[in-house]
Amino acid sequence: MSRTPLAPPRTAWIVSPGQVGMKAQCRGLAEALGLAYEFKDIRFRAPYAWLPERFLIANPFAMLAADSPRLDPPWPDVAITLGSRCAPIGVAMKRASGGKVVAIHVQRPGLPVAWLDAVVAPWHDRVRGANVIETEAALHHVTPAKLAEAAERWRPVFAHLPRPLVGVVLGGSNGLRRYRFSEGAVARLDANLRTLAASGAGLAVTTSRRTDPPARAKLLAAARELGGFAYDALGSGENPYLGILALADALVVTEDSVSMTSEALSTGKPVLVADLDGKSGRIAAFQAEMRRQGRTRQFDGRLETWTYTPPDDTARAAAALKARFGWG
């Protein structure tokens, strides 16, 4: 289903279930391609919300929930989809546009890759095909320019904190069969952060929207008690996430998110990964490989320093897509 456009594309729809991490990956790819993009956070209505992806391909537009954005012409030049249930949307947009829409899916699509123009997937998704672009880590929208801008914005806010400054990025439970921010995991991380602070390090802690309420309350309270900076992603005020990535001397991230780890690694700073309870095969494989390559280390309360080559998957994927489709 691939073809070479006559001219470089200008517009894209980012079609996903709307999770922050998913949107960030697609946004990064769209920006690297130089596209003006619009988010389409879609939902399927029952019973289609539970059907396998192949059954959605016939007419996914008719299967959208009433509160889901409508997907109607004029079509964009590119559909960037993420979430296996959204892959049929990209295929349907290509079909409805008479082949004018380029359908690109990020991560495993859940349907034959040949139905799409291109698939950008990390190696641990084990997706194979002539139109598959494999990445080491997750795509993201963190760039040196954004980090430099964030550093200027947040430097006065973090100026009073002890150095070295350690940024702590908290994820959360992501399913009964996957990682859990259990009481034990919270206690371990709390103890390790206290050990770190006792060594003289400053803390800048931020939660995510997935952070479990008990973990959120205990770890933010600990950060404040230890004289650090604490931000609740469910609260108000400007999100300091990019500022933390930009200004921290080292980063601690919880192991539940490939996206969070990949964004931290893009800084080139030491990345310490905090264990949770439970396990996800594909995420565990990614984390193990990053440790094997010497890019990350396990967090045990000690601050370590080392160097590595940061992954540059977003730029590489964009370059590969431009070459594939002749987008100069």
Per-chain topology:
Layout: E1 11-16, H1 20-32, E2 36-41, E3 78-82, H2 87-96, E4 102-106, E5 118-122, E6 132-135, H3 144-158, E7 165-169, H4 183-198, E8 202-206, H5 213-225, E9 229-231, H6 241-247, E10 250-254, H7 258-265, E11 271-274, H8 281-292, E12 296-298, H9 313-325
Parallel strand pairs: 1-2, 1-3, 3-4, 4-5, 5-6, 7-8, 7-10, 8-9, 10-11, 11-12
Give a quick set of tags describing it:
globular; 6-stranded parallel sheet; 12 strands; 9 helices; 328 residues
Question: What can you see in these coordinates?
Answer:
With 328 residues, the chain is an alpha/beta fold. Helix content is 33%, strand content 17%. It contains 9 helices and 12 strands. It has helices at 20-32, 87-96, 144-158, 183-198, 213-225, 241-247, 258-265, 281-292, 313-325; strands spanning 11-16, 36-41, 78-82, 102-106, 118-122, 132-135, 165-169, 202-206, 229-231, 250-254, 271-274, 296-298. Strands 2-1-3-4-5-6 form a 6-stranded parallel beta sheet. It has a 6-stranded parallel beta sheet with strand order 9-8-7-10-11-12, sandwiched between helices. Helix 1 (20-32) packs across helix 9 (313-325), helix 3 packs across helix 6 and helix 4 packs parallel to helix 5 (213-225). The longest helix has 16 residues, at 183-198. The two termini are 21 Å apart. The model has no long low-confidence stretch (mean pLDDT 94).
Helical stretch tally: 9
Please state roughly what percent of the residues sit in beta strands, choosing from under 5%, 5-15%, 15-25%, 25-35%, 35-45% or over 45%: 15-25%
The unreliable regions are: none
Shape: globular
